[in-house]
Amino acid sequence: MSINNIEEVASYIVSEGKGILAADESNPTCGKRFDSIGVESTEDNRRDYREMLFRSAGMEGNIGGVILFDETIRQKAKDGTLLVDIINNQGALPGIKVDKGLQSIGDSEETVTVGLDGLDERLKEYAAMGAKFTKWRAVIKIGDGMPTDQCIDSNMKALADYAKLVQDNGMVPIVEPEVLMDGSHSIEDCYDATDRSLKSLFAHLEANSVNIRATLLKPNMVLSGSTSTTQANIQEVAQRTLDCLKANVPSELPGITFLSGGQSDIDATAHLDAMNKIGGFPWKLSFSYGRALQAPALKAWGGKPENAFISQDALSHRAKMNKFASLGEWDDGMEED
Ligand code: 13P
User: Fold this and answer.
1) Is the C or the N end of the chain the one with fewer CB within 10 Å?
2) For residue 289, which atom of ligand 1 is closest to its CA?
3) Which of 217, 289, 322 has most ligand 1 atoms within 8 Å of CB, for mutation?
4) What is the tens place of the pLDDT at every residue in 295-327?
5) What is the CATH number of the domain that holds 45?
6) In the prediction, which pLDDT does 336 show?
7) For residue 211, is it within any domain?
8) Residues lining ligand 1, judged by CB closer than 6 Å?
């Protein structure tokens, strides 16, 4: 592949239906995922699991980028190959999560994502290690009086400051304003919180002169709250998500890569496919899934090396299904193949 600048990096990642494998779980989050299959979260186990994923046959042609955690970008496979090189050999670009997590805003339930201190030095180091793109996740909660304007504004300003610094260091920023699906709120409440967040985000990106053509957006879909008694169906989720994106996202943005956020793997695929079947938007609409790509592979692995092949098959299958969804060519009958 010949990729000469950051605009081409952003376009490559979402080209031809490709999407992103989010494998950037922090060690505590990885610990929670491993707890669910009874595996201890050691440095070697995390390496073995991720090496196995990155070597899956279905990475090639379906996955354009992999988001890594600081530990992983430095790790070598058992045979001494850098994991970053395994990813490159699959035709995917390595990326890195660079935020430092969430800090409470005063004594409220809301948070602001931190990590701007020392970011310039860290970016230089990651670029030298071969990272081509980065990720920063802001978290917005829906609840009584939430989200507040202060929470939205401080998070979106930090995202824009991060994005500018990343481009100055020759990498593509993924900006991730995640409105959580936790709660009993309605789909209208989710639309409203997502709309306010995206408006603020693109105003801050513009104020910082961030190059939108070299940026990827990683948003939530517009969904009913996970414990709401009324659950919007696939078509409604697809239509409301598209309405919200069309109202806020500039047409020069090359790609929107959704997070899965706790949706089942099939729901995440079905929603993405429904949006691409509706069509009529200027961006590539693709995926940057963590749980929705990894969950079946994690379960099939169970920490046992002898399960590597069935686990890799499970990841390959979800990667392929989501590629079809990014092209609007998926149907649920393909899940049985
Ligand atoms: P999920 O798809 O599991 O939400 O993870 C994506 C991600 O990278 C969250 O920051």
Assistant:
1) C
2) 2
3) 289
4) 999 999 999 999 999 999 999 999 999 999 999
5) 3.20.20.70
6) 81
7) yes
8) 22, 24, 137, 176, 259-261, 289-292
Cα 3 versus chain centre, distance: 22
Q: Which domain holds residue 84?
A: 6-336
Cross-strand pairs, 22? 67
* Over residues 153-163, mean pLDDT: 99
Ligand 1 centre to CA of 220 (Å) is 9
Distance (Å, whole) CA 45 – CA 126: 23
Q: Which of 21, 69, 113, 291 best tests ligand 1's pocket when mutated (most atoms within 8 Å of CB)? A: 291
The verdict on residue 218 lying in a domain is yes
Atom of ligand 1 nearest to the CA of 291: 3
156: alpha, beta or left, given left = phi > 0 and alpha = psi -120 to 50?
Answer: alpha
Per the CB < 8 A criterion, the answer to whether 228 and 189 are in contact is no
The verdict on residue 85 lying in a domain is yes
Question: Is 1 a domain residue?
Answer: no
Question: Residue 176 C-alpha to ligand 1 middle, in angstroms?
Answer: 10
Rounded to an integer, what distance in angstroms lies between the CA atom of residue 176 and that of residue 222?
A: 14
**pTM of the predicted protein model:** 0.98
pLDDT of 2 reads 84
Count of the separate structural domains present in the chain: 1
